[in-house]
């Protein structure tokens, strides 16, 4: 694939690691390419990071035709740059595209664009412990008409942002509120697609939780309002009576790549793991009886994030005395070890740039 390159004339500098936070600073360039029904994907270019001009009738502005992905580039101790399971993100983005009637991107084209762009921006991959370059590919429908239909024009962009930890707590346990009013998704809806609208619709509950001092909400299923689904930006797992349980993938939660990797890791290490329905009653009982030993969220941005407190209908449940559990710490160490190249990758997950 041909990618034209225009270099910035005013390069920025990588900020000091302790000031990074999440998604506030962007690198010098972005990748962009266009789609239309006649030409397919075309006009691929790397250009200076800039605003995107849109027609006021552009589909995305009215009907929310937008999907995105999130992955990271990690700098190893030797100074090399590597990705974590990028094909998983590429395939998930195409599944989201299918759900939202946006065009597919051929896998080899997507990978080539991603690798060439990250290679081009690799000086922006930070090296301090716990920092990485967050990669945000996204696609939006860009027809210049107000009719509601699947789109004939789309734009695909990759932007990158050097990041530290997603939560201000870092690896310290977060407090999560179980949402009993709003719902995030139902089967047959868009819950398993990574589309912008899912996040827009979840902001109201997130804001209510934040006002009460919680980091995010834990969603219950949209039909019975009874079964645990996932947290705002991560999947969720519990260790109950020695067994790791996590909600099964039934169409309404995001099939997280971190979730999948942790399950593969746990199974390889011989842990008892089950993907199934987990009701709020089961969780409350386990919390009351003290059999809920650990809880954590997992995601690209959030990595492995211990949950120290859950709140449901104003009742507060502290987990593991509000401290990170042994297994949570082990998962964090192993996963980040593989991602940053400090632990041998026995799974073939790492993709070297
Ligand atoms: N669930 C939601 C709603 C998310 O936004 C994310 C983050 O991408 C995840 C789960 C975790 O997915 P992954 O591990 O692929 O980043
Ligand atoms: C990610 O972990 O990559 C995500 O997309 C979460 C995001 C909503 C911050």
How would you characterize the overall build of this protein?
By secondary structure, the chain is of the alpha+beta class. It folds into two domains: 4-163, Aminotransferase class 4, branched-chain amino acid transferase, N-terminal domain (D-amino Acid Aminotransferase, Chain A, domain 1, 2-Layer Sandwich); 174-339, D-amino Acid Aminotransferase, Chain A, domain 2 (Alpha-Beta Barrel). The protein contains eight helices and 18 strands. It has helices at residues 59-63, 86-99, 107-120, 196-200, 203-211, 257-268, 280-289, 326-339, and strands spanning 4-5, 29-36, 40-48, 66-68, 71-75, 81-84, 132-141, 153-163, 174-178, 216-220, 228-231, 235-240, 243-247, 273-276, 292-299, 303-312, 315-318, 350-352. Strands 1, 2, 3, 4, 5, 6, 7, 8 and 18 form a nine-stranded mixed sheet that branches. Strands 9, 10, 11, 12, 13, 14, 15, 16 and 17 form a nine-stranded mixed sheet that branches. A hairpin with a 5-residue loop joins β5 and β6. Bound molecules: pyridoxal-5'-phosphate (PLP) and 2-OXO-4-methylpentanoic acid (COI). 2-OXO-4-methylpentanoic acid binds at residues 70, 199, 233, 299-301.
């Amino acid at each position: 694939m041909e990618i034209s390159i225009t270099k910035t004339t005013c390069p920025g500098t990588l900020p000091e690691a302790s000031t990074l936070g999440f998604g506030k600073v962007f690198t010098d360039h972005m990748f962009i390419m266009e789609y239309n029904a006649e030409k397919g994907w075309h006009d691929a270019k790397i250009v200076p990071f800039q605003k995107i001009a849109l027609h006021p009738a552009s589909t995305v502005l009215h009907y929310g035709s937008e999907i995105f992905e999130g992955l990271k580039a990690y700098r190893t101790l030797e100074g090399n740059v590597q990705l974590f399971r990028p094909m998983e993100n590429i395939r998930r983005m195409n599944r989201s595209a299918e759900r939202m009637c946006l065009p597919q991107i051929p896998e080899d084209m997507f990978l080539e664009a991603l690798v060439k762009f990250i290679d081009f921006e690799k000086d922006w991959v930070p090296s301090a412990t716990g920092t990485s370059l967050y990669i945000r590919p996204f696609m939006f429908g860009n027809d210049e008409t107000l009719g509601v239909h699947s789109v004939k024009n789309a734009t695909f962009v990759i932007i990158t942002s050097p990041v530290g930890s997603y939560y201000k707590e870092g690896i310290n346990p977060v407090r999560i509120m179980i949402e009993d009013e709003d719902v995030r998704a139902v089967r047959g809806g868009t819950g398993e697609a990574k589309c912008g609208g899912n996040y827009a619709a979840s902001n109201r509950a997130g804001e209510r939780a934040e006002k009460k001092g919680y980091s995010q909400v834990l969603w219950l299923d949209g039909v019975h309002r009874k079964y645990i689904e996932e947290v705002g930006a991560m999947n969720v797992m519990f260790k109950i009576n020695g067994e790791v349980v996590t909600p099964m993938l039934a169409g309404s939660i995001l099939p997280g790549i971190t979730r999948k990797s942790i399950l593969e890791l746990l199974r390889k290490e011989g842990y008892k793991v089950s993907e199934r329905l987990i009701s709020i009653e089961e969780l409350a009982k386990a919390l009351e009886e003290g059999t809920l030993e650990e809880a954590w969220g997992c995601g690209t941005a959030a990595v492995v994030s211990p949950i120290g407190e859950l709140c449901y209908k104003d009742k507060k449940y502290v987990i593991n005395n509000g401290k990170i559990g042994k297994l949570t710490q082990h998962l964090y160490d192993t996963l980040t070890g593989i991602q940053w190249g400090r632990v041998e990758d026995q799974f073939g997950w790492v993709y070297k740039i």
